Amino acid sequence: MHVNAPTAALAEAASPGNEPSNPLRTDPALRAALARELRAIVDIPNVIDAPEELLVYEYDATIERARPDLVVLPASTDEAAATLAACARVGVPVVPRGSGTGFAGGALPVAGGVVVATARMTRIRELDAEERIAVVEPGVINLALQQAAARHGLRYAPDPSSQRICTIGGNVGTNAGGPHTLAHGSTVNHVLAVEFVLPDGRVTWLGGRQLDAPGVDLRALVVGSEGTLGLVTAICVRLLPLPEAVRTMLAVFDTVEGASGAVSAIVERGVIPVALEMLDAETIRAVESQARLGYPLDAGAVLLAEVEGLAEQVEEDAATVLAALTESGARTVRSADEEAERERLWEGRKAGIGALGAISPNFYLLDGVVPRTKLPAVMREVMALSEAYGFRCANIFHAGDGNLHPNIMFDELEPGSSSRVLELGGEILRLCVEAGGSITGEHGVGLEKRSYIEWIFDPPDLDAMTRVRDAFGGSGRFNPCKVLPVSHGCAQGHAAEAGQAALRLARAPGVYL
Amino acid sequence: MTTDGARVAREAAGTAADALGVLRDALPEGRERDPRGYPVEGRRPAVALAPHTREEVAAGLAAAARGGLAVVPQAGRTALAAGGPLQRYDVALDLRELDRVVEHEPADLTITVEAGLGLGALADLLRPHRQQLPLDPPGGDGVSVGGMLASARPGSWRGLLPGAGDLLLGATVALPDGALARSGGRVVKNVAGYDLHRLHTGALGAFGVIVEASFKLVPLPQATATVVCRCQHLPQADGLARTLRHTPLAARGLALVGARAAAASGLGPAPHVIVGLAGAAAALDRSVREVRLCCRSAHVPHADVRDGDEGWGRLRALAAGAGSEIDGGDGTPLVVRGSLPVAALAAVLEEAEEAGFAAWAHLAAGSLLAVAPPSGEAGDRERVALLRERCEAAGGALAIESGPAALRAALDPTARAPDEVALDIARERRSRFDPLRTVNPGRWPRLDDPGERGAP
Ligand SMILES: Cc1cc2nc3c(=O)[nH]c(=O)nc-3n(C[C@H](O)[C@H](O)[C@H](O)COP(=O)(O)OP(=O)(O)OC[C@H]3O[C@@H](n4cnc5c(N)ncnc54)[C@H](O)[C@@H]3O)c2cc1C
User: Fold this and answer.
1) What is the average pLDDT score of chain A?
2) Whose CA is nearest to atom 13 of ligand 1?
């Protein structure tokens, strides 16, 4: 299945102004023939073409829908490679898909075509506790890897809040972060190598089994490329030893600003906690209405801070953090060392997004980043803007990283509300950019933000990014219309319409948890 | 498109002298330097230029590309013996004038600097704020930010602390077509767009010249110390090192040092294990106790506590070929780095020392460094090839980080068993960014060798 000569895809990518074309939409016979060919590769039930079954693959964690023509569920790298080669020969769009929990529309087949879902590639191929590495297939659920590692006293550091359901392949796609990114970094810092299928079906490993493999680092480029460069079929990750001691602190503040100020106060004292997470009043009320966790209902915000390491270090760091919290005006601080007690403090954070989903018909979850010191000012403006627009806004976010997640609550049945929510979302992200930040810290650009990306990058920057994408040979066909703006990607047809309409509103993700 | 492309471009621009004229005209007065100060691999450039701004770098690159000239960017001159030998060398691009701090907000723990700034100067600047960029590549203070990124040589703390790529938040790169392209940003978390800055890390200029970079900083540790454990033989040292790897410690470095490397770095001629500690005083005390306990049960007689950087600084200098001419000529010492499973480090280390290298291993990174004076092309090639074979047999790889040009011509400095598919992507990428091979032609032999490329 390994084609060495440049394929039609490469030629297509080389031609300027390429647009995603999808012959399957105009030629039903072609669709049937491709389905037959794919069935010969992956077995009959693993190619889905019945409309009612395709429905499941129409959406991710956004509200937008886009219908694939076919869905393929390969069980191995060979099957995946043969699938991609077959799609390349016919020149149809291909969209990789993990669990579909993405918040940016990355897994939506906006131009139709073939969705390659990794749900059958769920093996942990290898876990070497001595070398502290694991090799997993892309469909492995994040939590399953965590649990497998924990049996050896190890952990996989990236821990997105969706870890019970999202896949490692999807995490690689979006370069996912989580509460512990503050100390341990995002997914890219923990991926040593990826097994990668190019859009034309050729397979290669990028990276090595140790850190800093010699050679051009294509691995780091694939992580976070949102499925636009090719399909990841295996991931070699590094595992870290579990720390000797961990302490979690939960501090109650009267205001979000007060809690935001505490974030800088902690860091200024020379301690970087492993996690520093904030929940505002709106979120606390939502959480408490679902389960009594003992968060005070009259609090303006709570800040969760966690330190870990050698017991003596934890003792020292915790004292420093405590002093900073108190001096920043924390009303009370609860501390916990024991696992069960710590879990309890974390419970509100973990259940937060789901709880918000339950109290509002819809919400739009934003993902922006600001420099840590700008947190108090930006948070103040976020609240003022939401009020001006007449929406309730709840905040539950990675405060230590300056990674905001305003959740705007609304009811799509109320006329005009969707477009106003989008407008507000745009204004909030604008604020982040003006504060020197970014339009996305972990959810990705996908469809949702591909026009916003022009706020932070100039045409030469985007040109360079286009050149890199083109070098993989799948431009315009492999997950088309994602990441780069209309000016640097597909410009016409169905996909563009979807792209235009794709400033997406999150559906309530409670349903996923 | 490389050699031919360069010739065609040169013809289009007239003679080489014309091309140099065009290049000189592209930069303001006062940017020329004496080319004799920029030898690489025994060659001197026709012209040396020291641009003052990133725009000047971009303009110079574009003019050079138009004239078919080959440009070698440089600043600290610590990694000029890396990669394949240069195929051409017309222009030295001295980036040391680009040494400004663009933005530093101490409370954000981030900094944006120009690429010519040295790591020593950067450390001095951060120290009053009790902050650091916790990277210590071979060459140490003399390495420039851009050179550190382009050569991507990991330091002693790698694995226990983040690497350069992990701390890099964004970068601006001058491209041979004259564009300045930015990726990433200045905030600590960001997934907008393709992370081109990570691609330039370790690329030896293949896709452009880094002119500016933003980093995540960390607080300076409250205290540091090094525990030096002198062992009786290598298996004992290996056993101790592996036990320590599983012992909770406030460690930022853990190295297994062969007898030759220990002698060369002033520790004394015996295999050693050295542990770099960083953290609160109480955590350091406890860690020292733990290390001593481990030594006792491994029957290792000596475990001395020294100042923070002792031992490490000498090894770092050794890895940089300290005291020798490292312009890639015949006198350049050999420095190779193996990537290996932890379980295989000691065995390969032993073979390396038997073959005359001074060798040590960083356990947290799975990397083995081996250093030797040059001994002529044939001998060097044999020694390095043998070591590479051992690394590959153990499931690892070996890169030549520094060495005489003749050695780097005989053996591909970076590739392990070449993967044609990955090479294809990289080659395609190089062609899209630098079609005429203007920057560092030859550093990636498999991307630049006309014989290696398919039909146009
Ligand atoms: C309740 C909730 C909480 C969340 N919390 C976090 C959080 O804390 N941090 C965070 O970062 N995100 C979070 N997310 C977002 C989401 O879970 C992540 O983006 C996750 O990485 C997506 O994984 P997935 O398996 O669902 O991928 P999908 O949504 O299926 O795909 C995501 C992207 O990756 C690509 N992709 C998937 N698999 C592959 C593959 N094998 N090869 C190549 N490309 C591929 C897709 O094309 C798409 O562009 C949250 C989502 C929800 C619903």
Assistant:
1) 90
2) A160
